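Quick illustration, no need to memorize.
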Amino acid sequence: MKKILSTRVFVFGLVVALATPGLADDAMQIPGEAAKDGFKLSDQLIFPPFNPVLGRKLFAEKGCVVCHKMNEIGGEDGPDLTYGKYDTPVNAMEVASDLWEKASIMIPAQEDELGSQIELSPEELAGIIAFMADPQEQKHFSKADIPADILKDMEEM
């Protein structure tokens, strides 16, 4: 059986599968600085910056923490997103696909718990995904990261 080659990109421990069938064993490496600034894979395909520090901030501020646990902090309505408890290595495209598939469940929950739907720019989503894929940055996550209004919502649950 002929092996079909594809490209995988490693970013902060993320594996971005650009084609699924028969992934090749050798992967293209994107330097860390390029990942932090975003990068152009080709003239037709770009990636936003993958910034785990921004992701840690957004995970708390956007309210993801209300339903998802990270570093033993957060809700239990959604999956625990601590590195190693979710699929690892973290595939950025799979995370985006999961969010899309679960939107019909997540949006009503967000509206109920937070009062509105969480909206994420590509840069914000990339940051949260980078945070999911960075166990070192997750160690810095604490209740102090959670804004008072979000923390209050969590305590009322």
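The helical segments are 32-37, 52-61, 64-67, 92-101, 103-114, 122-132, 135-138, 148-156.
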